[in-house]
Amino acid sequence: FMCMLDDEDRNSKYRAGIAACFAEFAAENGGEMPTVLDIGVGTGMLSALCLEAGAKHVTAVDCNETMCNLARRHLKELAQKSRFEVVQAHAGKPPPFEAERRFDVVVSEILGTLLLGESALHYVMDARQRLTAPSACVVPRRGCQFAALIESDDVASITSVRGMSFT
Q1: What are the distances in angstroms from CA 131 to CA 18, 31, 84, 115, 149?
Q2: What is the DSSP string of 29-55?
């Protein structure tokens, strides 16, 4: 987690994306600030960025109890308890929210090293359908992944099966 928390370039892009969503929401809603759903809260960094940007309320969800406890401690230092809650639940299952709750912004950093490796697309799409207002903003809004073809005896030696017969 430390490399992600220390990645100022990455974090500044999240901060800018959150600010853009909040500004758009406020412009369309008479200056009101949005409610936020943070999927996969982890340490609480994205929730913290949302609280610092003025979110009305942040609901952070993670399936890991240890991460939920860490996020609670971190967020308690930044905001009054009335502005956030951390819920231990699996993002792919209906969380224990009242049925009428709708979030204005969804943030997540469940991308994994291969962009969609942690089922990010599935969880965010599910949250958009079940838990958000129709005009909800999602951060990040999109992603891009690059690949390059290489030839390497070292890589081949750790990714190939050698000396085994399957006949």
Answers
A1: 18, 22, 16, 23, 40
A2: TTTPPPEEEEES-TTSHHHHHHHHTT-
**Cα–chain center distance at 28:** 24
How does pLDDT run across 78-132, given as a tens digit for each residue? 767 778 999 888 765 655 555 556 899 988 876 555 555 655 566 677 777 788 8
Model confidence pLDDT, tens digit, residues 22-68? 999 999 999 999 999 998 888 888 999 999 999 999 999 888 899 89
Cα 90 to Cα 45, 65, 110, 142: the distances in Å are 19, 11, 13, 23
Residues found in the chain: 167
Residues forming the active site: 109, 118
pTM listed for this prediction: 0.76
